[in-house]
Write a structure and sequence with these properties.
The complex is a heterodimer of chains A (80) and B (133). Chain A is an all-alpha fold. Chain A has helices spanning 5-8, 13-29, 34-78. Chain B has one domain. The chains are: A mainly alpha (80), B mainly alpha (133).
Chain lengths: 80, 133
């Protein structure tokens, strides 16, 4: 059983995703010191935070664009 | 007559929508300068992975940190949505810089760190690319 197994199967998708990345990369590049593990785990949480931010921005942009389209359609119909 | 009634029917939702517009503040628009600088930082961090474990990395990380701070300042008042993500990238680069200024971390740490920072920047670029142009 790998050190990461309990984390990669965590119910929290942020924890499982982060543990999965860390497991894959350490297999590829080699083991780390405790301080390095701690820092990189924090970075992976930051990465998940960035993904959440960008998804939110994309959603805001989608709502805004749809809204602008609706306004254009309605004003075109009104001007007929 | 029917046409006028139809127009009146459309006017009500229009006014309602116009009222709702104040609820949605317009997302900041696409900024080619910011996009270009972020692409440069993404490219340079990716390319630096080959220097992990060499003395050249210390100077490179210092340069990344200068650029990440510049990006944070650039977006501080112009794009709050992107600023919150760039602050996180700057935090990660600053940690790396602090470690490199006092010694040499493991090659594995360097490679994983560079990969995470590049992925963060790539995600931010995806968000920027989707903005209104």
């Amino acid at each position: 059983m790998s050190y990461f197994d309990s984390f990669t199967q965590d119910a929290d998708p942020i924890v499982s995703h982060s543990a999965q990345i860390l497991e894959e990369t350490t297999t590829q590049y080699g083991a780390l010191s405790k301080a390095e593990y701690t820092e990189l785990t924090g970075d992976l949480l930051d990465y998940n935070h960035v993904i959440a931010n960008v998804t939110d921005i994309a959603r805001q942009q989608y709502i805004y664009d749809s809204f602008q389209k609706m306004l254009t359609i309605v004003s075109t119909v009104l001007s007929l | 007559m029917v046409n006028t009634n139809m127009k009146n029917l459309l006017l009500i939702p229009t006014l309602l929508l116009a009222g709702c517009s104040s609820l949605f503040s317009s997302p900041s628009t696409y900024d080619p300068v910011l996009y270009s600088r972020t692409v440069t930082l993404w490219f340079e961090t990716q390319a630096s992975a080959t220097n992990c474990g060499t003395p050249a990395m210390q100077g490179q990380v210092l340069a990344f940190n200068r650029e990440s701070k510049r990006l944070v300042k650039y977006t501080e008042y112009a794009s709050k949505d992107l600023n919150s993500s760039l602050v996180l990238v700057d935090k990660d680069i600053s940690e790396m810089n602090s470690i490199y200024q006092v010694g040499n971390p493991s090659v594995a740490y360097c490679k994983i760190k560079v990969e995470i920072i590049s992925d963060e920047l790539d995600t931010i670029l995806k968000g920027m690319g989707g903005k209104s142009k």
